[in-house]
Amino acid sequence: MGEFTGRIAIDRPATEVFAFLSDPTAMPRYLQTVRKVEQQGPGRIAMEGEAQGHSYRDEGWIQVDPEGRRMRWGSDRLKDYGGSLEVTEAGSGAEVSLQLSIVPEPAVAERMEREAGAVDHAIRIAMERTLGAIKAACEGREDAPRSADDLPDSRPFGSSATLNPDI
């Protein structure tokens, strides 16, 4: 547990992809548990959503570097959670690289082990689905996910969507 990375190629210009991803209000379009995001001032956001049948509200920070097309974020409540992403040009499109640092709370880790066999596996599946949802939303596909049940496994998008680029 701890550090997870993934990436996916997107058939849209890098500047357009970053503009979409750096808008916190777009998060519900690609994060399966998020229903609403509000900006609370410079570098501050609040999220509301539902996970495992329980509603939640969390506040945190976000740093956006438009020139470098990079973002970093973290939670006020979950001290062992944070992430970053970078959008780079790749051929005629873009590549999104996602990095996540997380140590799930014990009850959440237990559920993940029960449902996916291992915490690491559960997090990797969630990351792949998030990357697939980002791709679908950025490419404007009609089948962009609307709920957690609609989130695709990103493997149909090729090896660039896997968390292990050697697979």
From TrEMBL:
It holds the Pfam family Polyketide_cyc2. Residues 157-167 have a biased composition (Polar residues). Residues 139-167 are annotated as: Disordered. Residues 139-153 have a biased composition (Basic and acidic residues). SUPFAM superfamilies: Bet v1-like (SSF55961). This is Polyketide cyclase / dehydrase and lipid transport. It comes from Belnapia rosea. The lineage of its organism: Bacteria, Pseudomonadati, Pseudomonadota, Alphaproteobacteria, Acetobacterales.
